[in-house]
Amino acid sequence: MILAFSMFDRRPRILNLLHALHLAQPCTQTIESELLALASHAKGKRVALEIGTFQGVSAVRIVRALAHGGLLYCVDPWPETGGKPNSCWSITERHFRRSKVGNAVRIIREFSSNAQELIPADLDFAFIDGDHSRAGIETDWRIVAPRIQSGGILCLHDAITPPSEPYRVLGSTQFFSEVASKDPAFELVETVHSLAVLRKR
Q1: Is 0.85 topped by the overall pTM?
Q2: Residue spans per domain, the chain
Q3: Domain 30-200 has CATH 3.30.160.20
Q4: Rounded to 5 degrees, what angle do the CA atoms 107, 128, 174 make?
Q5: 3-state helix, strand, coil in the chain (%, to 5)
Q6: What is the pLDDT of residues 169-189, one digit of tens each?
């Protein structure tokens, strides 16, 4: 069973060891209902993007839903810490290998602001779950929104403040309320917990 936001989220080195030994699964802050929604909206898509891959849980769900031959671009810097490999990257790489999705993934180890030239201009699915600050989500939106083709899907994590979690007010929730939800180029398809699903008109 995939671990949700767990005791290991702030101890990735410990989780990396346990994962290597097949004693734990990767962590994610995306809950099961959101993962199911991502897979549902990614079904049959061909050119997909994820910003903020973390430990690869949502990426694997998305890849498995894509059309045969579909490709997911994963953008995340996974920076080294103290000259040591990033534990979340180690987990992600191993999770992709064990899940046998490597051929359908293109890794871009950069911040989104430095990866613009590497992101396709013909996306039919995107999931933004990177920097949740106001400046961060504005940057991701500016990069991704114009690249979504008509009829394509754009999913934003932590765009909604769930009633059960009133404390979850982030730059990303403010941006969705004030900007993304009012963009005439997109229509809101559904919300699932903190996830907002938009379709390009």
Answers
A1: yes
A2: 30-200
A3: no
A4: 155
A5: 40, 25, 40
A6: 999 999 999 999 999 999 999
